[in-house]
Design goal:
68% of the residues lie in helices and 0% in strands. The longest helix is centred in the C-terminal third of the chain and has 16 residues, at 185-200. Helix 2 (25-31) packs antiparallel against helix 3 (37-48) and helix 10 runs antiparallel to helix 11 (154-167). The protein has two domains: 1-83, Leucine-rich Repeat Variant (Alpha Horseshoe), CATH 1.25.10; 85-205, Alpha Horseshoe (Leucine-rich Repeat Variant). By secondary structure, it is mostly helical. The protein has helices spanning 6-19, 25-31, 37-48, 52-60, 67-79, 87-96, 100-106, 111-117, 123-136, 142-148, 154-167, 172-181, 185-200.
Length: 206
């Protein structure tokens, strides 16, 4: 599939589809974004009718790779006529396509997947997960948002801070507990500032 000749890439895609090996999934998904239409079509055809085991791995692959790879996996599942059977599968499918507003519409059932997404290697995924958790709100959102305060990316941390302030007084007990348990001075200061922000905003009793 890395060959410069289009015919070679098309033949490779078809062969990988016939083999049906799980190791074929990644190169076939990446081939969905080849510059040549015929190569993309051959890869899509190869992924259209996978067995249950391969389909299960495709669903799992919605969690991995970059945005392009995840979109390709969703496209392959679409081509095979797959439809999500659970809220978790639906959330993964929508997240892979960047349809975060629709993830929010799933409601609290999407929270486990969103919490999992806080460990995603992609900053944009983590940031969108925080924003969606923020919009879902509620007491269940507090713990994952506190966890996001330790993210390496400033954008993720700031979104988590503002989300906790918006939640208001409901978040204060957990924030105070996190403050007592935290050993890092900068993290303690951040927690203290959030608690202060809630109280100054008049949302302590919300």
């Amino acid at each position: 599939l890395q060959d410069r000749e289009e015919g070679v890439k098309i033949a490779a895609a078809r062969s990988l589809g016939y083999i049906g090996d799980l190791r074929a999934i990644e190169p076939l998904v990446m081939a969905l974004h080849d510059v040549d239409d015929r190569v993309r079509y051959a890869a899509l055809e190869a992924l259209k009718d996978p067995g249950d085991t391969v389909r299960g791995h495709l669903i799992g692959a919605l969690r991995s790779g970059d945005e392009t790879f995840r979109e390709g996996v969703a496209e392959a599942l679409d081509a095979g006529g797959w439809t999500p059977e659970t809220s978790v599968e639906q959330a993964l499918y929508l997240m892979a396509q960047g349809r975060w507003a629709e993830v929010e519409q799933i409601g609290a059932d999407a929270l486990p997947v969103l919490v999992e997404a806080l460990s995603d290697p992609l900053i944009e995924v983590r940031a969108n997960a925080v924003r969606t958790i923020d919009r879902l709100g509620g007491e269940e959102a507090v713990a994952p948002l506190i966890r996001a305060l330790k993210d390496d990316a400033l954008m993720v941390r700031k979104r988590a801070e503002w989300a906790l302030i918006r939640i208001g007084g409901t978040a204060i007990p957990a924030l105070e507990q996190a403050f007592e348990e935290e050993e890092q001075p900068k993290a303690r200061e951040a927690l203290q500032q959030i608690i202060k922000g809630i109280r100054m905003s008049g949302m302590e009793k919300s």
